[in-house]
Amino acid sequence: MGEPLRHHAVGIDDVPDHDDWLTQPEADRINGFRFAKRREETRLSRWTAKQTLARALGVDRSDPAQLRRVAVRNASDGAPEAYLDGAAAPVSISMTDRADWAVCIVGDPSTSVGCDLELVEPRSQLFVEDWFTEAERRFVADRPDEHDLLANTIWSAKESALKVLRTGLRRDTRSVEVRLGAGDGRDGWAPLEVRSAEGAVFPGWWRQHDPFLLTCASTAPTAPPVSLVEPPPLATATPSHRWMERPVR
User: Fold this and answer.
1) Cβ–Cβ < 8 Å for 205, 190
2) How far apart are CA 159 and CA 185, in angstroms?
3) Which residues, 6+ apart, have CB-to-CB distance to 152 below 8 Å?
4) Torsional class of 170: left (φ above 0), alpha (ψ -120 to 50), beta (otherwise)
5) Helices 36-57 and 24-31 sit at what angle, rounded to 10 degrees?
6) Which residues make beta-bridge pairs with 24?
7) Taking the model in full, what pTM does it have?
8) What is the SS3 assignment for 154-197?
């Protein structure tokens, strides 16, 4: 089993209200968004990524000038890639955000990684029927007392795997099938596995920080993920939707 993935979570209240930590192109892009949701989520995800990468790469995360050395750019397929001083950084990354919280996960550069953050919220039977494979539907149906937890975990694991595949939701979610291993994810990380229609297998992990749920997947087996900050910030996180106070600029 390989080295553990490293991750960090940040809430929107911890994002600075100034742009000193952004490069000028980053600031121009973010501030050009008309809709507050996209603007706030992008600021949050970029701050989280820079804070995570600074810890992983040994950059002074308290100095805005040093944080400007760290950048996340989107490849042609939309996947995020990390840069340091304009050159590709020696890591692979994945990013996710939900309800005013964001997570960035860092792995070995030889391993593609994906992560997804969800809330444990109601999921209808129609949702399960539309987006899950037959085996996944049976798995959820056999455990009615855990319907919402399992439906959200499977959905999140699919999202993580689709990020590993660098397709996102452009690909049919039923073309990847999730299998959850032993463990309920409540006291620590529980294993999962996602198998693509082509036969590729992506091992991963999931963990619940009620009401949040975090999953990750990769192209190679890893030890359970390690938080770069202890205790993990998600352990005491509260969801919110601050952008709704002023949805349009």
Assistant:
1) yes
2) 18
3) 118, 119, 120, 121, 123, 213
4) alpha
5) 150
6) none
7) 0.96
8) HHHHHHHHHHHCCCHHHCCHHHEEEEECCCCCCCCCEEEEEEEC
Radius of gyration of the chain (CA): 18
Q: Which amino acid is at 155?
A: W
pLDDT in tens, the chain (249 residues): 778 999 999 999 999 999 999 999 999 999 999 999 999 999 999 999 999 999 999 999 999 999 999 999 999 999 999 999 999 999 999 999 999 999 999 999 999 999 999 999 999 999 999 999 999 999 999 999 999 999 999 999 999 999 999 999 899 999 999 999 999 998 899 999 999 999 999 999 999 999 999 999 999 999 999 999 999 999 999 999 988 877 776
The CA angle 105-75-175, to the nearest 5 degrees, is 70
Task: Look up residue 245 and give its amino acid.
Answer: E
